């Protein structure tokens, strides 16, 4: 395993924003020694039936950043989400900051560029983003050093972000009673996901873990924070000594029964463009539905 620059002495302030329609948790992560902050996994609101986009979720975060007098340096996407739209361009326009994603985005753009029959104007080189992270790449939020850890499996572009003693898991891991995310999207792989989860669980036991999603299994209230020790002991898919073979068998059988996320078609088209809504030849914002394409 590569040597990551873990520093448990750095303790960023983490503020969570739960978005009920898609069960997504977005975060503001603040450097304790300055006013610098980052946003992890923002949400743009979509009423798909009406084709209507609004920004109430992002506006809540913007208002909070302004109220606290913070300076936004990074807008991080842990991966190309398939269940909600990113608000990254809207946040950047309002507050500045750089949009970063894993360099695996190029594979995602290649795959879905074909599925959505995009023309040559759709760049497949990740150039819609300001930064493309490789495994172990570091970046600064004020004086706080963060790094990206390559964790493919759910998608080929997934990165977990480690910021001091706080780790943002994206969809690599859910709360202990939620288990793990599906691995059957194009470019996904259950065995690869297992290995990625083991990388996350090799972080220090007291590492705080922050989820991107929670669905409140068995009627419990929504939660988003746990620790490496908790996940190792209790995660229903990978904890308590479950083997890779157990995981792959379970994950593959479960995934075969899952229906597509409600917003997968608009989400992919927008998120593979760093959150920009595609435009037709007249410049109008327009989404496609590839029939039997997914
Ligand atoms: Fe996802």
TrEMBL record:
GO terms for molecular function: metal ion binding; sulfur dioxygenase activity. The keyword Metal-binding applies. Residues 23-213 form the Metallo-beta-lactamase domain. Coiled coil: none annotated. Keywords: Metal-binding. This is MBL fold metallo-hydrolase. Pfam families: Lactamase_B. GO terms for biological process: glutathione metabolic process; hydrogen sulfide metabolic process.
């Amino acid at each position: 395993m590569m040597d990551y620059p873990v520093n448990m002495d750095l303790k960023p302030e983490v503020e969570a924003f739960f978005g009920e329609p898609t069960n997504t948790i977005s975060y503001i992560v603040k450097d304790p020694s300055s006013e610098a902050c980052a946003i992890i996994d923002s949400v743009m609101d979509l009423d798909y039936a009406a084709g209507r986009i609004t920004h109430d979720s992002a506006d809540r975060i913007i208002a909070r950043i302004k109220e606290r007098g913070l300076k936004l340096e990074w807008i991080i996407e842990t991966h190309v989400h398939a269940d909600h739209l990113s608000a990254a361009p809207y946040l950047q326009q309002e507050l500045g900051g750089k949009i970063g994603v894993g360099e695996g985005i190029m594979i995602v753009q290649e795959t879905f560029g074909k599925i959505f029959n995009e023309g040559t104007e759709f760049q497949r080189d990740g150039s819609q983003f300001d930064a493309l992270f490789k495994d172990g790449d570091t970046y600064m939020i004020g004086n706080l050093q963060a790094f990206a850890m390559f964790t493919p499996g759910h998608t080929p572009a997934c990165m977990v972000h480690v910021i001091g003693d706080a780790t943002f898991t994206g969809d690599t891991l859910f709360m202990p009673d939620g288990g793990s995310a599906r691995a059957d999207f194009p470019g996904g792989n259950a065995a690869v996901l297992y290995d990625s989860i083991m990388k996350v669980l090799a972080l220090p036991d007291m590492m705080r873990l922050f989820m991107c999603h929670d669905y409140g299994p068995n009627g419990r209230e929504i939660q988003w924070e746990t620790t490496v020790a908790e996940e190792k002991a209790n995660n229903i898919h990978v904890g308590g000594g479950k083997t890779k073979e157990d995981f792959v068998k379970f994950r593959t059988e479960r995934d075969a029964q899952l229906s597509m996320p409600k917003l997968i078609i608009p989400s992919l088209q927008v998120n593979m463009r760093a959150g920009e809504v595609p435009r037709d030849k007249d410049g109008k914002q327009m989404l496609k539905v590839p029939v039997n394409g997914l």
